[in-house]
Design a protein that fits this description.
The complex is a heterodimer of chains A (198) and B (165). Chain A is of the alpha+beta class and 198 residues long. Helix content of chain A is 41%, strand content 28%. Chain A is built from five helices and eight strands. In chain A, a hairpin with a 5-residue loop joins strand 7 and strand 8. The two termini of chain A are 25 Å apart. The chains are: A alpha+beta (198), B alpha+beta (165).
């Protein structure tokens, strides 16, 4: 595999992302959940795009996820996937919609979860724009209820014509009181890594 | 005992043992199976994108299935080399789902339908008959192809469905 990023590049990128997450994303998510939020930044790594499914843990193989994907283009191209267990996303949609119960995901519930993905992606994108002076445009958020394998495959296809490898940064967020767990996977073209770490 | 050969994302495999089976998982990607039942030769590609746009060669077999155009060329040439008759080669396909839905009707992530269109165009150009398909919708599928029967079995764990085409 022809890797384009050095270990030092990846460490720097991880550090920058963590700064954005701590300063922007966590406060936004904390407001949405109405509780303190902690996060765990997993290793940022460059992997072959066809091996994106390596990121699936054995525990996640059979899980059904509620997911939002936002594609950002412009001076920098990134793909951001937000996902959580479907069963955990229902109480969140109930809370956001002010309902007492949600048996199935209707259009409004999907919209509410999509909006969370949109807001949280914007928190990172705005931080990048403010820090680096880039112009970045976000897509309409796409919503899916699917297995992580299916979600990752769609992301891989979305970046497959740009590069053979991608930089993947995985982050887990936890609501301290509710225990709600939300995960983020941010991917980008390794050729663009220098744009963020310079 | 049957031997199951798993085709990874962007990968491709060719089998010629009647007891062998090919298996892959597709969402927006498409599983293409080409087979010659008389010669007992079958190939499966896990196609991610319609067309290869750069000049880089994907020499490794674990990525040669990534693009529909190069995957077809590789499968047909290699199947013929080991004894398949181009006049007998048939195709079955599965996948090409639209995974992410949007509030607006305009989908930025319609790669699934673009893959299907490209593959059907190539099949038309190469004269290979498409004998059956399970494509579209919005869910991922496990796809298995058995060379002994020519059956393609499609399983959705999420929808709890199983069908044979």
């Amino acid at each position: 595999m022809d890797l384009k990023s050095s270990h030092n590049d990846l460490q720097q990128l991880e550090c920058i992302l963590n700064t954005f997450i701590v300063s922007k994303t966590i406060p936004s998510l904390s407001v949405i959940l109405d509780e303190p939020v902690k996060h765990f930044l997993k290793k940022t790594q460059e992997i072959q795009i066809t091996n994106l499914d390596w990121l699936i843990s054995n525990f996640e193989e059979m899980d059904v996820m509620s997911a939002v994907y936002v594609k950002c283009d412009g001076d920098l191209s990134i793909g951001v996937l937000w996902y959580m267990l479907e069963e955990e996303s229902k109480p969140l949609a109930v809370k956001l919609l002010g309902k007492s119960h949600l048996s199935e995901f209707d259009k409004l519930a999907m919209s509410s979860i999509s909006e969370i993905g949109n807001i949280l992606t914007a928190s990172i994108v705005n931080a990048i724009c403010n820090e680096a002076g880039y112009k970045i445009y976000s897509s309409v958020p796409g919503f899916a209820i699917e297995s992580l394998r299916t979600l990752l495959e769609a992301m891989a296809s979305d970046f497959g014509d740009r590069s053979d490898t991608i930089i993947a940064s995985a982050v887990e967020f936890y609501g301290v009181n509710s225990g709600i767990k939300l995960k983020m996977l941010l991917i980008q073209d390794p050729k663009e890594t220098k744009k963020l770490i310079m | 005992m049957n031997s199951i050969i798993e085709v990874k994302m962007g990968g491709l495999a060719i089998i010629r043992e009647e007891t062998d089976e090919l298996k892959t998982f597709v969402g927006s990607c498409v599983a293409i199976c080409l087979f010659d039942m008389d010669a007992k030769i079958a190939a499966m590609a896990h196609v991610m994108l319609p067309k290869k746009t750069d000049s880089k060669q994907h020499a490794a077999e674990n990525e040669v299935g990534k693009f529909a155009d190069t995957a077809f060329a590789y499968m047909i040439n290699n199947m013929i080399q080991i004894g398949a008759d181009p006049k007998r080669i048939q195709a079955k396909i599965a996948g090409g789902a639209t995974i992410f839905s949007h509030e607006s009707e305009i989908s930025l992530f319609n790669i699934g339908s673009r893959n299907i269109t490209a593959i059907k165009q190539i099949l038309k150009e190469t004269g290979i008959p498409l004998v059956s398909e399970d494509t579209g919708a919005n869910f991922g599928r496990w796809v298995m192809f058995a060379l002994s029967s020519g059956d393609m079995t499609i399983v959705s764990n999420l929808k709890k469905t199983k069908k044979v085409i």
